[in-house]
């Protein structure tokens, strides 16, 4: 139930913050197109490593890289206003974003396939479908509640600077509106 806590902010908020920094939604949506072949091939490749007696080893190996990618996503959001110009964003910025998302997909699918392989391994064959569904439901719940909390905390934790209002912190919604 808690395995996604370390990744939830990066997974749920990065796209929204990139849009907030000026990256067009249409461009972010187009960046998902090169990920489709990767999303098809990755489970096939990763399943070879999770088929053994210890399927969670792949999960454990991917976790630190996925945590580091959260820092890289924070860097991408920080870097966005620095490379933006009148015509939009340079091609190299989009290349770095695509590469980051591709690495993220590799770690995400490594962890996901490993969890599914573990669930299949521990499921009782007599009631395998029911038990595996329960395990997958708990796993999905563990992936969704941290993202909801992260999205809820974005506004209170975002540092805001007031332009032209000296002495005001803009920490509350009312102060920011003023």
UniProtKB/TrEMBL annotation:
Encoding gene, per UniProt annotation: Slc33a1
Listed name of the protein: ACATN protein
Pfam families: Acatn
Keywords annotated in UniProt: Membrane, Transmembrane, Transmembrane helix
Taxonomic superkingdom: Eukaryota
A molecular function GO annotation: acetyl-CoA transmembrane transporter activity
One GO cellular component term: membrane
TM spans (from-to): 28-51, 63-80, 92-115
Subcellular location: Membrane
Membrane topology: Multi-pass membrane protein
InterPro entries, per the entry: AcetylCoA_trans_1-like (IPR024371), AmpG_permease/AT-1 (IPR004752), MFS_trans_sf (IPR036259)
Source organism of the structure: Horornis vulcanius
GO annotation, biological process: acetyl-CoA transmembrane transport
């Amino acid at each position: 139930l808690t395995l996604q806590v370390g990744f939830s902010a990066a997974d749920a908020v990065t796209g929204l913050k990139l849009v907030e920094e000026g990256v067009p939604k249409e461009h972010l949506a187009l960046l998902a197109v090169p990920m489709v072949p990767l999303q098809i091939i990755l489970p096939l490749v990763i399943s070879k490593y999770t088929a053994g007696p210890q399927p969670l080893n792949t999960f454990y190996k991917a976790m630190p890289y996925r945590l580091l990618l959260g820092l890289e996503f924070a860097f991408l959001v920080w870097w966005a206003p620095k490379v933006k110009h009148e015509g939009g964003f340079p091609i190299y910025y989009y290349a770095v974003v695509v590469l980051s998302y591709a690495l993220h997909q590799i770690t995400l699918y490594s962890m996901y396939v490993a969890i599914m392989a573990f669930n299949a391994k521990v499921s009782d064959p007599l009631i395998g479908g029911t038990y595996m569904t329960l395990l997958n439901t708990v796993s999905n719940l563990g992936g969704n509640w941290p993202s909801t909390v992260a999205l809820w905390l974005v506004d209170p934790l975002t540092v805001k600077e007031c332009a032209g209002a000296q002495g005001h912190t803009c920490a509350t919604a009312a102060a920011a509106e003023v």
